Every structure is written in C-alpha cells, then in structure tokens.
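Appendix B, Record 12. Input sequence as logged:
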Amino acid sequence: MAKNYEEEAKAILKLVGENNVDSVTHCQTRLRFVVKDRKAIDDKALEKLPEVKGVFYGSGQYQVIIGTGVVNDVYAAIAKLGTVNAIYGKDDADTAGKTSNEHKTVVQRLMAMLSGIFIPIIPVIAATGLFLGLKSAATNAQVLKLFGAVPSDIPASLTSVISVLTDTVFAFLPALIVWSTFRYFKGTPIIGIVIGLMLVSPILPNAYSVADGSAKAIMLFGWLPVVGSQGSVLTALVAGFIGAKLELFFRRHMPNVLEQILTPFLTMLVTFAIMIMGVGPIVHAIESGMLVGVEAVIHLPFGIGGFLIVAAYPLMVLIGIHQTMIAIETSLLASTGLNPLITLEAMYGFANLGVALAIFLRARSNKAKATSMGAFTSQLFGVSEPTLFGVLIRYNFRPLIVTVLTSGIGAAILSMLNVAANSYGLAVVPSYLMYIYNGHALLWYTIVSLGTVVAAFVATNAFAIPKEVLTPDGDVETANAVISSTVSDNKVYAPVGGETVALDQVSDPVFASGMMGEGMAIKPAEPGINKVYAPQAGTLSVVADTGHAYGLTTDDGMEILVHLGIDTVNLKGAPFTVAVKAGQHVNQGDLLGTFDQAAIKKAGLDATTIVLITNSKSYARIEPVAADTTVQAGADLLAVQREDVKVESVEPA
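Logged structural output:
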C-alpha cells in the first residue's frame, strides 16, 4: 500500500510558510521553493521531519532535500493541497529557472553579476601576483647576497623585460574588466576590450599622476578635465555595463545592411563620450571614497576591523554574498598594489583546517571521519564548501563558532601588523606565494596562519567536538574475521567511465555533505557523447523526463541514484537521451541512456556523475573500491556491507 504523504506535505508547508512561498518546483532529489523571506524558515524544525534529509539555500531557491522517488510523492501531495503555486510536476527547468531568477533579490543578482565578471580574470591576477613575488625574491638584497651579488648587478634590460610580466595586467586592468562585463551582458567582448583600452590610453594623462600633481588633465573645450581611468575598477564596470547595453540597443534598431559597421562605431563613440564627459571622474571619485572607507575599517585600532571582517566572512559565504569582496580586492590592488582583505579572509580557511582535523582525530564514526578528512583535504587548497556544509553547520553550529572566533583573532593580529598580499585567487596552502615579495609579510603571515590552525584545533577539542561523531557506526572490531554478507551482489559498478572523485569534493554542497547518502563521483572520460550503464541489476524506480537522473532499486533492496552532472536539470533534457523507462527491470551493464558532456560544459555546468546509495543507513559500511583512479564503465566502484552480517572468527595464520 502506497504511503500517504499529505501530513508530511502539510508539515513542510507550515514550516516554510504558505504565505512565504511564491512557487514550488522539484527535481529528482529535492523540493525547490522560491520564497519571499528565507530567514522566516525554521531549518532545524524542518530537518526533524521524517522524510527530510536536510535543507540548503542556493540559486535563489530554498531546497528541501527529500530523496529520489519520495520527492515525487511529497511534491504531488503539496500540489494536491493547492495552497501554493506548484508550477510544474516534471523537471521543467526552463520554468523553474525563470521563476527563480524573477524572484532573486537585488543583492543576489549583484552577487551573480560580480561573480560572472571577476571569476574569468582571477587566474591572470593570481599569476601576476606570483610574478611580483618571484621578482621581489630574485631582486632582494639579502637573497642576492647569498650568491655574492647586489641588486645593481642585475642588468636594466632584464629588469625592464621582467616588468612586462609584472605590470601588464594592472596597467590594463580596466580593459580586462570591460571585456568581461561585455561578455557577461551578452555584448561583443572585442568591443569591450577596445573601450577598456581607450580608458587607459597612454594619450590620456594618468589619473594618479594628475592626482599627485606630476601631470595635468586635458581640458576639453577649455573647461572639461579629461584623465585616464588607470586602476579604476568601478569605472570599468560602469563603462562595460553602459557599452554592452548600448550595443544590444543598436543591434536591435539598426538596419541589417548597416549593423556590422555602425553598431561597433556608435557603441564605442557614445560609451567613450559618456565616460569622459563626467561619468568616469564621478564614478572614480565614488570608488576612491569607498576604498578609503574599507581601509579605515581594516585599520581600526587593536585589530577590531580585521576581527569584524573575518568573523562575518563565513556567514557571507553561507548566504552567498562573499563575491562582493572580489570587486573590493581588485580595486585595492589596482589603486595600492596590495590586498589586505584576502590576508584577513584567509584565516577562515586556516581555522577550518584546525576544526576539521580535530573532528577527524576524535571521531569514532567512520562516516564523520570520512567527511571531516574530505573537508580538510579540500580546504587545504581553498575549497571551503565541504567544510562549511559538511562540518561547521552540521553539528549544532559549535564548530562554526570556533571558526568565527579563531579566524577573527588571527585576522585582528594580521591587521595590527599591516600584513597584505600582492594578489588574490590563492587560498590556504598556495596563499603563501602571495607574500614572498616581502620577507616580513611572509614571516608574520606564516606564524599567524599556523597559529590559527592550532588555536582552532585546540578550541574544537575543548568545546566543539559533536557528540554524534563520538559514537561508532557499528562494530568495527572485524580484524581476523570473515564477513559473510546476506547481499548476493555487494558491489556497485561504475555507470560511466572516467576519473573517480571523492563525494565530498563535488561542487554541489548537498551531495558533498552526504545528506543524500554515501557514494562516489566520476568525471566522465569522453569529451563528447557518454553512455550510461546500469550500476547493478534491479528495477528503475525513477527515470527523469529530462534524462539527467536514474533511480534504481536493486534485487537486494539497495537504492542507487545516478545523477548526471550538477544542476543539469536546468538544461531541460537537451544533452540527454533515455533508453529505458520507469518500472523496467535492467541487468547490470544495460544501457540506460547517453549524455553529451561537451554540451553540458558549453552551458557552463559541471558534468561530474554522482553515484549514491540513498538508503546508506541500511548498511554498516560503504567504501570506495576505485578511489583516485580512472575506471572503465562497469568496473567496481563501491563495496557495500549490510548491517545484518554474520561474523565468523578465524584463527590467525
């Protein structure tokens, strides 16, 4: 008899708030609510409901994690109640995406814009920071002394050539930003580059030279001062926005025969005129005032500013507004050549290391050990989501409090010492490369960062070890024993070929945190069409209409989810083909369907395939057979052991 989910649906709606819901959608694993006030929802109460595995807010949607199969029934019950706008019953991603975007706040849209504009230029800024660091180290008097040389021994010609590597990005930074802004707003990027180059043309007086009195502005018409926009990030953003919108306007209204020539001509002419005739200087003045304010906060007495900034940073990451920092950091680098913000923010990552390591060493739960070690490993290279969602907020927020306090103290010390990086884009272990330009900065950054790790480790051990991790998953004293499982096939096989990835390393925090169950991920090998095969024999409980997910209940009762890519429900089935249907029995290795990895990547999404055992709690142990390696489709992927195992003691040989 099918279970009635009406009471569960009512409970979920009551806690989310019927009057708080604009619309609700669903995918294969979760309900997706577009809500008016995310803060009005009691997350803890929702997580206590029988069918709710967890909650997560992202992409403008409040997501209630239910699980494959059951989510369809809960959604159907919600739709049947008729008290909220259930906008689709299938994976109609186009509608869902549109609805989500329409209800995003101004702040959410701003975050998405800043992320889309600045992320493409992070690599070159990080590389420039390394060039600067290496140049500083190579020309340092103390370093050269070790080789019996002095700075004056370095040929001027060599210094000039090296300066090309270190100075180019910041000299033409506005051009890069205008290019990226055009790209984000669907303009023609090459037009953006040209407009950006106009703003920093050597023909125009350098803005900094005019400011310090070593150069004079060009007086247009005898009264309008015109200067370059060197180092002005905000000016470049405004120019890129205006230019892209003008280009799209001209393309819509220009006759086809004239469009190819006149659209670029008018876009560049009008944008440049707008920027030099008042808008540029005004925006630059606003930006300068903002930077003065930021630096004033950073340098508040006794490190108070540093503490406040970094204490707030994990919360900013949690609600997704930390991308604003990239714009501020870029402006600081362009105007001062230094970036104190990334120095302060980095303490968050180091504190996370101490917390995750402490929980790993104290945990008796195998699952907690795996989660915390995966979080620790990813945090070493600056990926904080597994730590944030899998550790910090998973255990009553006590680990998060430790991170906030210890990282804040570390940042306060660095703020008082005036330590600053010369770049951004590098975090935790690689971040030390941003300080080799200055021995004093590198020394203090090393001492404080390692001290933050130790402080977080000690504080976690003293106050924040969750009771849940101190309970063993089951009897692990199985040394010198033979396990005789009641499962006839206790392995899950790879549905696709490719490179295996630990689950806690995937970019979706819901999958990475283990909310949906334990498992493994695979980065598909084929750049084009990939075939997807059944990971075991069983009955297909779920076949997504979009083709991006399959749910399989094996002949032994194991529930397996194969999820093709991250957020690929938004592609509305375009890159997928389906060869099976729900309710069909398949054998291990039978073809389920295909997907086009190139199309997924072209859409800007991750094609990583997730393989989960969604009823993981029914098993004592789930371990990867093929970890950190390349597998063929059909190869052993996961080994599974039931709780109801028979253990027979064996005498040691």
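The chain is about 50% helix and 15% strand.
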